[in-house]
Amino acid sequence: MSFEQSMAFTESQIGLFALTEDAREGQLAFREKRQPMWTGR
């Protein structure tokens, strides 16, 4: 995989991750200064 392809793939995966419940929980827990409660979703 070329560097350009790997960067495009990484960016797409980051975009998908940002849509998960765990991503929202992580951001909320950080703002509330508490440990996150991960669900695996």
Main attributes of the structure:
41 residues, mainly alpha, 2 helices
Write up what this structure looks like.
This protein has a single domain, classed as Lyase 2-enoyl-coa Hydratase, Chain  A, domain 2, CATH 1.10.12.10. The protein is 63% helix and 0% strand. It has two helices and no strands. The chain has helices spanning 3-17, 21-31. The longest helix is centred in the N-terminal third of the chain and has 15 residues, at 3-17. The protein starts with a helix and ends in a 10-residue tail after the last helix. The mean pLDDT is 95.
Q: Identify the overall geometry.
A: elongated
Q: Any idea of the CATH class? A: Mainly Alpha
CATH homology-level superfamily: Lyase 2-enoyl-coa Hydratase, Chain  A, domain 2
What CATH architecture label applies? Orthogonal Bundle
CATH topology name, in short, is Lyase 2-enoyl-coa Hydratase, Chain  A, domain 2
Q: So how many helices?
A: 2
Mean pLDDT: 95
Question: Secondary-structure blueprint of this entry?
Answer:
Blueprint: H1 3-17, H2 21-31
Structure described in brief:
By secondary structure, this protein is an all-alpha fold. It is built from 2 helices and no strands.
